[in-house]
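Morning run. Coffee first, then this:
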Amino acid sequence: MGAADIVPGVSGGTVALVLGIYEDLLTNIRQGARALGRLVKGDPTGFTGELKKVDWAFLLPLLGGIGLAVIVLTSVIERLLEEQPVRVAAVFFGLVAGSMVVAWRLLVRPANSDFVAMGLVAIASFVLLGLRSGPVSDPAVPLFFGAGAIAICAMILPGISGSFLLLMMGMYTGLLDAVHDRDLANLVVFLVGAVVGLALFSSVLDKALHTNRNLVLAALIGLMLGSLRVLWPWPDGVGSPEAGTRLDDGTVVEGTSGTALGAPEGDVLVPILLGVGAFVLVLAVTEVGRWLEARGAAA
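And here it is:
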């Protein structure tokens, strides 16, 4: 999940869905949200009690793996994105496409309404990921809170990248500037917004999965389908300068870049093979996971 979050256009939620831990992740995040709710209400005893219900044996290794991947792999993936953008985009295109197949298999007797939801969400995400938005100049403190609350939702939504949500809100540059200038006040506000947004959204999504699982899964598949626009390798979906990046002449790249679609050209064969290989890898990992789960149940 950490490696996926590093790449623009790829969501860690997609990886969680493929590995079969998505619903467990949502459940534990919602439990953490309940604990925070108790703390806000001034109930430290209830806060402690709710925290004990969190599956820390599951959550801590997961968070540790995400953090380790971000620390160790950021420079590696960034270098690959710069040196082999088409091939890297093709690999992640195949991974997300395979994830869609995995999610599709989770649907139980899909109804017409599920197909409609899938199509509408796919079209909406495809269009939204192509929007361009200039950066908000000198954003106010409440905007940092709102940006954190909205962007963090990408962590648990397969197919949506947090950086692109920030781009569409025009807050990507503002956040980069806050990090660069060590503006702790705005960064803390952003993190508080992220915690609040994650707590609220995870609760809503977890409840929706339990009440109308098929419809939610169909919408998630639509998100992943629409997000393939970002990963289309020709022209590369990840090799252009990211919005908010300062160029050598001092200018700042504005809006989303790399979302144009074109016919395959130049380096074609190897990216196609890599994409197909990534697609097959996702399905293979899923089958291995099913086999291990069945074996564990039998034991």
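The chain has one domain: 2-298. Good start to the day.
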